[in-house]
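In response to a reviewer's request, we include the raw inputs and outputs for one of the modeled complexes. The two entities were modeled together in a single run.
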Amino acid sequence: MPFREGLSVTDAILEVQDLVKHFPVKLPGIARLLWGGNLAVHAVDGVSFSLRPGEIFGLVGESGCGKTTVGRTVLRLLEPTSGSIRFEGMDITHLKEKELRPLRKRMQIIFQDPHASLNPGMTIGQSIADPLIIHEAADESEAKRAALEIMTEVGLSPAEQMYTKYPGDLSGGQKQRAVIARAMILKPQLIVADEPVAMLDMSIRSRVLELMLDLKRRYGPTYLFITHDLATAKFICDRIAIMYLGRIVEMGPSKGIYADPKHPYTKALLEAVPVPDPMRRGRKVLPRGEVPDAVNPPAGCRFHPRCPVAMPTCGWEGRDFVDFLELRWLSPEIAAAEAALGPVEEWTTAGLIARRRVREADPGAVAIQVRAIVADAEFPMTQAIEAVTVEEEDLVVRFRPPAPLEPKEVEGRLVECLLY
Amino acid sequence: MSESVLEASELRVYYHTRRGAVRAVDGVSFAMPEGETLGVVGETGCGKSTLGKAILRILPPRTMIQGSLRFLGKDLASLPPEELRKIRGKDIALIFQDPMTRLDPLFTIEDHFVETIRAHEDVSKAEAVERAAKALASMGIPESRLKHYPHEFSGGMRQRIMIAMSLVMNPKLLIADEPTTSLDVIVEAQILEILEDLRRVYKMSLLLITHNLGIVAEVCDRLAVMYAGKFVELGDVREVFAKPIHPYTQALLASTIHLESKELYSIDGLPPDLVDPPPACRFHPRCTYAQEICRTEEPAWVEYRPGHFAACHFGKDFL
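The model returned the following structure tokens for the whole complex.
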């Protein structure tokens, strides 16, 4: 980590460097002893980006990729594990809550669920005016006047009448407008919008997005727009970062990424989006399986076990070999022929190594069988295997270490993939 | 066209509430031929899920159901409860949006399968387990995972298990209510391909209830658009997408944000309260083309093109 104090101050609104956020997994006593006690969900694992003033920056990814955690950590609603966060040039990574207070006026958040974001005991008007009062930016009558004004702007009209209504009287779309009004009333520099339209029906989604664009034109806030919906991100973001399992895999101007995605994961995501045109049906090339557990993310490129164009150097490990056997044995004939190697429960893995105790059979013969399977299978993983050996009574499959992976500049964007 | 698997005529489902009757389904008629995938599309609260539940009669007590529902010629309303139970889960299967809440956390996957199979067929436990293993393998889940509990699976795997469980009885009709809504886009695409393959292999009919027009475009043969308890349009999926007749269908298609959207479009106003829906055409308060007649007279269900129906007074103008 370079010492950033000495560097020139950039004009970025928000600058995030190597942000890491791990959530420790709480285990009961015995399990803690067994596992060494330091299991953690690697929600965000080294993420860097910066927001230019007035832009809409999209963080896009599937559930569990860490996008929401990034959004909350940059606002210091969660404590970062390591890395740095600079807001308007000021390092806020370690500021105390009291020191953060005055900054909070300038950074606001919009949550996904409008039904849970408004206090049911406060009227809509009170909720919207509340930030002004909390931050002592206005007295009560001024706050009310400002609230009525912004309510008209977001389309909660007639404002006088809406002011006294309770959240229960409003529809989902209206509630989200109120939430946006509450975030906007302080005229913040930065708004983190976490899936602001995901809970809304199609027919009203557009109106809420339109409103956000409209407010941006008028007040010029910078948006960090968090979404799983690639179509929405394409429509409203200037730049996007695609996240997978706690890492940014591709980042750059939206136009370029949508026109010509570089990372295999970005390609897969775009391919999977349903096209509302029945004339263009066709089979899709989809990645295998699902997003793996973030407690133990895959080595090398985290997407490699599912990647359709993975190479031998992408980060194959012992557990990939066991997964490979399991998948292979879905066919009963193959499972029967290779019964001496099974079942998968007999295999243990540690990093680059997969091992199985062989007592009942001749270890040498079993090793030959594994080598034959490996030589036969057309799968990039098998080429990453360094050796299949017999150590004492164990059959051991050992992998070569992965090639080092770093984000690279490719056609005006950053891509973290060994293809480039 | 072959015989209808399912035939609904003037189906009405009114929920009983303190505020009055909620007319969730209010006069819906359609027929599903064998092997067809029919998509029912609409927004939250339009009655599409109620329609699915009405077919299986899994509605709260005191819910009023009117009209007729015939499954392979049998009137479901007149069947005694035991007969209905034989059909439910066997001939008509259902998969829900959130598979986690539909699997019992205290039972293994094997228990679930054995219970389902043995509820309908007199087979030994070993045979039931064998069938379960086969069904799971067809979904890409190894047999060794039969002994696992629901929480040990990912969301996509759980949905695969639900599908495997509903298909193990070889149903004639599968009702899928937002089967992929809680899943991520890649897993969603995987599940849709599975449904598509299975339908082809087992020749079953699929009633797919969803709010997502993209999904309908990818897997359905026909499409029904539902608004405020009524079908407003029904037809071949390609035709409805290319030449929508009802203004609501047009607006819904225009408001869908997809990768090629050029502009944002939204429908003014809110969906109506189904306790007291607007008179005549229920869409008229939000319709840009609404005239006096739309406020006073209910539009007829007209076949504007062969097999393409819509309920709009001005349907001809949109041909």
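As requested, we also summarize the result in words. The longest strand of chain A covers residues 40-51. The radius of gyration of chain A is 26 Å.
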